[in-house]
Amino acid sequence: MDHQISRHRHELKRRQLALRHTGRVTPNMLRLVFAGDDLADFVSLGFDDHVKIFVPGPAGEPAMRDYTPRAFDRDARTLTLDFAVHEAGPATRWALEARPGDRLEVGGPRGSMVISPTFDWWLLIGDETALPAIGRRLEELPAGAKALSVAAVTGADEEQVFASRADHQATWVHRPLDRADDPGALLAAVQRLQLPAGDGFIWIAAEASVARALRAHFLAGPGGHRKEWLKAAGYWRKGVADAHEKLED
Ligand SMILES: Cc1cc2nc3c(=O)[nH]c(=O)nc-3n(C[C@H](O)[C@H](O)[C@H](O)COP(=O)(O)OP(=O)(O)OC[C@H]3O[C@@H](n4cnc5c(N)ncnc54)[C@H](O)[C@@H]3O)c2cc1C
Question: Which of 85, 136, 236, 246 is the best mutation target for the ligand 1 pocket, counting ligand atoms within 8 Å of the beta carbon and taking the most?
Fold first, then answer.
């Protein structure tokens, strides 16, 4: 089977949005719904697209941070972003304090990765910051698709329920947030998985050293997964602000 992974560029635009609604998916995952006519030509083709949000930085200067369009409704002109709550940086702090009516400037997405629906299975792995993309992928997969997810959160109350038509098997692992840079729990869980037969696409996003260790695990040795069929990224780095690491050789 010929699998296609295509990259699409979009016109880079900044949009002014207003916060319409705030809620919580789980105790430490905020869900913010933004609205605005600027969304009329918003494009997000890939489940792991990201936008840049502009928020006041530590000294009041603008700071940019990356967030996943968790959901987008062109007719309603709404964009949903989920924010994992942690030791607050400027984006987390903004999201925690935001109230309906507050304005947010959003840039992008600059591009999208689109993967043909030809893979026999999907394996989606990550921490809290990956859950928006994992949830979106699971919700967008058609009936009959096979998907496994392995996600690290702080406890049972942070596990999310995804509405997926796919044949989906969820594995949750628990670890405290101060161990989010230790790949041990996720590595142990993926080692126990029975992967389906056929061709699979593996997607990984987590703290950078965790994402790197998981990627190395799947690519190791002669029986390793095909590199073109795996995408891994560090979505943050412990102790470093605004860290995005694309893991490619
Ligand atoms: C492509 C992409 C998509 C992303 N999508 C999402 C998303 O949809 N939802 C989401 O919540 N995050 C997402 N992230 C991660 C998010 O951009 C980072 O967590 C970001 O650092 C948060 O900004 P901040 O201003 O709160 O913290 P920063 O100022 O960047 O960092 C402050 C401190 O907090 C630490 N920190 C940052 N993130 C975490 C964390 N998750 N847990 C514990 N400590 C942390 C840093 O190491 C630093 O010490 C995404 C990242 C990328 C690259």
Answer: 236
The pLDDT score that the predictor gives to residue 218 is 98
pTM: 0.98
DSSP 142: P
pLDDT at 11 over 90: yes
Tell me: do 15 and 107 sit in the same domain: yes
The CATH number covering residue 71 comes to 2.40.30.10
Lining residues, ligand 1, CB within 6 Å: 50, 65-68, 82-84, 86-92, 128-129, 132, 177, 180, 235-242, 244
**Residue 119: how many CB atoms within 10 A of its CB?**
20
Q: Residue 146, CB half-sphere, CA atoms under 13 Å: how many?
A: 13
Assess whether 107 and 129 both reside in one domain: no
